[in-house]
Amino acid sequence: MNFARQRLLKSAGLGSLSLGATSVLLSTPSGQAKERLPIYSHPDQEIVLQEVPSELERQIGVVRRQVTATYRDGYKQVQGLVDRWIGMETAVENRLKSLMSPDESLTPSVLYIGVATLTGSILTRSRSLPLRLTVPPLLLALSSSHFLPKTTSNVTSYFGSLEDKYLPSLAEKHNIAKAHSEMTWERAKEMIERARNNFEGGVVGGVGKVQEVTGLKLGEVWKLGGKEREASVKGLEEKAIEASKDVNGKVVEITKAVEEKVQAQVVQAARAIEKKIEEAGPDTATNAERKEQVKRLV
Description:
Layout (H helix, E strand, L loop, with lengths): L1 H26 L2 H5 L20 H45 L6 H18 L5 H19 L1 H18 L1 H47 L3 H5 L4 H17 L3 H34 L3 H14 L1
Helix pairs in contact: 4-5, 5-6, 6-7, 7-11, 9-10, 10-11
Subcellular location: Mitochondrion inner membrane
Pfam families: ApoO
Subunit structure: Component of the mitochondrial contact site and cristae organizing system (MICOS) complex.
């Protein structure tokens, strides 16, 4: 009895299982029943890790970028200053080369100019303040114009152009003062030339009077005609230049010799005149006046 009941239950369970399977098969769609699984396994999905910095790291990055930017700006400014300094050095060097004359040597001339300037300061160290302030620059200008005339002229022209460009009113006043000084200098030269001509004319006239009184030709002995004396001196100088390489020394020696000879001849002529005056007669007053005239001429 029990055995039969168990068999019925088993058969009933199998039937319910078969019915459930058939219901599941019937409930699945036809497309999924046809889908097949792939042979190879599916590829792994790409995993992206995003780094999220902390607040401290973010602050450090901000500070580092600021410091880097400040360093770059400072470097650019320093480099700009260096470039400007190099440009200024190049400009100054080019300007100095343009001002210096290639025909003039700076080695001894600058030394002479410095010695002259220091000499002025030494000579005026116990003098008044205006002299101490004016004499050294004056000696500097005079010595530079003497030893380096072309370079000094170039420097003067350059400063004049700067004055005309940046200080036109001062340049105008400077030009007016320069014109007045040139006029004064020309007048002084004319006065000196007139005084010299008057002196030479007086001497020539005195010699002429002596020649009329005594009959001696002092003009030929002393050669006060001016042109004849200059011609003789020039002839001697030309002979000295042709005869020797040391032109300046020889010319000075020859000029001194000529002057000594002329003075000796004048003294001899004066002595001869005095002798003739003494031999002329007993008029002592006239003889004394003539002797005085001869002494003045000598």
